[in-house]
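Input record (one chain):
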Amino acid sequence: MDWRAPFDLHPRRYRPTELVLLEELLAQTNDAGEAHRLGDANRLSRTIERLGEQRPWAARKVRDAVKEARGA
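The corresponding structure, as predicted from the sequence alone:
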């Protein structure tokens, strides 16, 4: 079953892979004690741009993609 996560300020619906990447990004950032970095718009924008090019499906690939995009 497809699940949709509509957001009012975005012109399209997010894909499940994008939601998984976001969840992993938030988890890794928090686990690294770097939650404050989510407030850095430039850094977050660069990270999201890098992740936007990714389409991993395996859990390990998701973790690796987010780690690389975060520059960790």
